Fold this protein.
Amino acid sequence: MEEERIALGHGGGGRMTSDLIREVFLPALGNPRLEALGDAARLDPVPGGLAMTTDAFVVTPQDFPGGDIGALAVFGTVNDLAVSGARPVAISAAFILEEGLVRGDLERWVASMAQAARRCAVEVVTGDTKVVPRGQGDRAYVVTTGIGAVLPEAPPGPGSVREGDEVLVSGMVGDHGAVIAALRNGLDPGSLHSDCAPVWDLVEALLAAGVRPRFLRDPTRGGLGTVLGEMGEASGLSVEVRDGDLPVRPEVAGLCDLLGLDPIFLACEGRVVAVVPPSGAEPALRAWQALPGGRDAARIGRVVPRAPAPIVRVTPYGGRRLCDVPAAEPLPRIC
Amino acid sequence: MSGWVSGLRDPGRVRAMAEEVAALDPGRPVRLMHVCGTHENALCAAGIRDLLPGWLSLVAGPGCPVCVCPASEIDLAVRIASIPGVTLATFGDLVRVPARISLAQARTRGADVRVVYGVADAVALARAMPGRKVVFFAVGFETTACTTAAAIQASPPDNFLVLASHRLVPPALQALLELPGETPEGFLLPGHVITVTGLSAYRDLLSRRPIPMAVGGFEPLDILRAIREILVQIRRGHPDVVNAYSRAVREEGNRAAREAIKAVFEAVDAPWRGIGTIPGSGLRLRPPFRHLDAAEAFGLAPDPSVEDAPTGCRCGEVLLGRQDPEECPFFGSPCVPDDPMGPCMVAQEGTCAARYRHRRA
């Protein structure tokens, strides 16, 4: 039997669009605000102010071990809120589909998005669907926008970072980037899968342990190295990273050797980098390691006076190397 | 990381090997040379030079195929890429190397220049675009030349052409020893290349110029072990070719790969950036395959008047190991990987780029 495919009419705003919404989006994502199908969703006021973020997901391939574009589109946006110290309130989702996309693929991604939203206790309250002619897109792009309620303990940001602060990462580095790199190079990722997951519980655990991070970030595109490099630039300081303390899976390290990549610059999709005052390092590590998503958390470095590069890497043999942030993501369309 | 790799990186074992190296002090300065961009990257990334004793220096020679490719051949590639109906496919680093203009600049002016990971991708492009001539601009040493040769033997489509700028390592080593001025006291031989060439070519070199040599792998312990083997030869006064990378390198090398090169290419004299013309160091398609030669197909030839480097750029001396990159007045300012003056700062395998990416704090 011929597979059902997305046609230009599904993005035209007419009956085909309504049918697609009714048959694909509402059954999976349904909630009273979305089901109202208004031009805008109304939200209740929240104390403490709002945070808002938006992200476009263009990952290729759209399906990968450990996740897909639907899950990524929820976790990516919710995690950006989480590391800003904001509890997610609602998200929107816009789909840009390529004519000819197999409808079953869309249904699978939407189901995955719904499952991810339930994990994050957040609802997709509004959305949009457009279809572009065949050849003018790559199956599907998803844009999500998230609104969150800012907690009083939200981290102040890179300007508050001080020399001597400790740097921690919540788990294995580079899993997502390594999976995508393997798939794109025709290599079997084996047991390796994306770390694609919500990070809210990691943020909450730090705050509950009384740790007041100066800076939190989810090291997605550009990876841990880019986050630390940008923080170094913004704070006027540098970050010393001990390569021997970086949690990297052997498979990821092997793949990086093979492809000439550096795990520190590979995307993570379910990790948090925290910069905490020295006294917060041990409590933060204990809080993370007590969680299933933080078992491999590690202290990886510290903030040092400004060096000629934003990152200083200590090799396992004791050498100290300067490390710049690459001009571009080594793997475009990683998320 | 599998156990054997982590063992080769084990800090304790690496430091112990560094101590063995230091114990071979001949009581005078010793200068060794490697000729492999991968060795330079490995040395820099792990900080191996920091572990070496003060009397020992390990300099980088002409080990980056993109770097040794003369500007005149890149210029030829630019001219071919600019012909309507031609798609030129090559390695990413080569696209950015400046000649009169770079291939990247040619692309902005409308040339169809594609980055590929290897010759197979270029052949696939040719199959996908039967209406265009697809020219694979082939650089690389024996390790890459055998892949080009294999692709040519596998009956590529009629619209596939090759612009071959391959170079051979053994003639370059000989040429380095014949240059006026200070020559290295020993060679750390490039493990990857020697998996193809085998050791016999280096034994031939040894019979003409007795110089200590050892084949090295690319993990920290591999490199230090090869250095130790060279120093042992120096101490004994008995130059030899030692295989210190026996888990990958066999005495006879890879016969099938060498035979493919030999069947498809013939050795010709070829220019190297910074060195000049080295006899028998280049590869030209043999007559049965000459119709695949892009330069011949388009009736073009390299223009020797194209300058190799902008004024002041010292890539030529860096390639000979006579200029330490970090002592170049342009290193780091204004010459950086994102805005390079010469090829050694462009290429992943380039000595300047490796040093810059991993410069000492």
Remarks:
- Chain B touches chain A at residues 1-2, 5-6, 9, 11, 14-15, 44-48, 50-51, 220, 338, 348, 357-361 (CB under 8 Å).
- The CA atoms of residues 290 and 296 of chain B lie 8 Å apart.
